[in-house]
Amino acid sequence: MKSKGQSLLEVYDLKTYFFTRKGIVKAVDGVTFTVHEHETVGLVGESGSGKSVTAFSIMRLIDPPGRIVGGKIYFKGEELLSKPLKEMTKIRGRYISMVMQDPMTALNPVYTVGEQMVEVLTRHLRMRKSEAKRRAIEMLELVKIPSPETRFHEYPHQLSGGMRQRVVIAIALSCNPSLLIADEPTTNLDVTTQAEILNLLKELQEKIGMSTLFITHNFGVIAQLCERVIVMYAGEALEQADTVELLRNPLHPYTKALMECIPRRESRGKRLGSIPGMPPNPVNPPTGCKFHPRCPYAIKGLCDRRKPKLVEVRSGHFVACHLHEVT
């Protein structure tokens, strides 16, 4: 793997809220993190923790009633949230690409695979159609699709789920983006195909040298692919560290609880851990630390009243928990 370079993506105090009839849902509530060049960073957490909304905010794809209400997002030193939509459209697909959970949502069912790939290449790279076709077939071959010349002329419904996801990856990488955002790209696939797609993404990341923001709820995927990890809960980042450091020394009670839910060889025949309670009501979250109603270490009068700050407790290891605040 190539060495980590300078900052590529910088997200500062990002806040994305949804204004519903029932109230304001603070889907992302003050998240800060950085992705360096040639680095793979994981966003991990339960469903509803704000991972996907963070990704869509970076892409500026938040639809009403959602709105980015605060924060800054810098990509290669340029602030994205202040850019006109026309400029942002040029960045999407060309410099920042995204692979979503469901390839059938990402692919247009009435156009062939080749037509969709050629359209991306001619629009972003100004290629002639003949040149774009050659590039598209090369990309299909790169993502290990058999008989790429044949698949080029097929429609999405003619392909298997794993094959469709490979096409989506080929499209996302066809313009050599600097940053790939992968939003749980293996969720709807069988276990064998999941492993193939994950291995493919790891291989392509090393070959192309792009940065990757990988969104998942699976620590096994994090351990396999990511160099750093950010743990999210109820729209906030509770812990950030290098992957090896976090897996060996999780500091936040929520991170520890998540890891206790992971099946291991030594846990065979034993009952897996679970996190008591339910994620907080997004319209009316608890005061103080949002995790405190489910936390076995919560300090009454502190955790339920004051929100902890994200502080560096070890080199490169940040945690938002009153148990680890530096006094």
Question: So how many helices?
Answer: 11
Question: What structural class results from the helix and strand content?
Answer: alpha/beta
Mean pLDDT: 91
CATH-defined superfamily of the largest domain: P-loop containing nucleotide triphosphate hydrolases
User: Which shape, going by the Cα principal axes?
Assistant: globular
CATH topology of the largest domain: Rossmann fold
Class of the largest domain, according to the CATH hierarchy?
Alpha Beta
Strand content: 15-25%
Give me the CATH architecture of the largest domain, please.
Answer: 3-Layer(aba) Sandwich
Order of helix and strand elements from N to C terminus: EEEHEEHEHHHHHEHEHEEHHEE
Fraction of residues in helices?
25-40%
> Which strand order does the major sheet show?
6-7-8-3-9-10-12-11
Largest sheet: 8 strands, mixed
End-to-end gap: 39 Å
Radius of gyration: 21 Å
Low-confidence stretches: none
Total beta strand runs: 12
Number of domains in the coordinates?
Answer: 2
What is shown here, in short?
With 327 residues, this protein is an alpha/beta fold.
What are the key terms here?
2 domains; Rossmann fold; single chain; alpha/beta; 8-stranded mixed sheet
Task: Walk me through this protein's architecture.
It is a single chain. The relative contact order is 0.14. By secondary structure, the chain is α/β, with parallel strands linked by helices. Strand 11 and strand 12 form a beta hairpin. Helix content is 31%, strand content 24%. It folds into two domains: 7-95 and 179-196 and 204-278, Rossmann fold, CATH 3.40.50.300; 105-174, no CATH class.
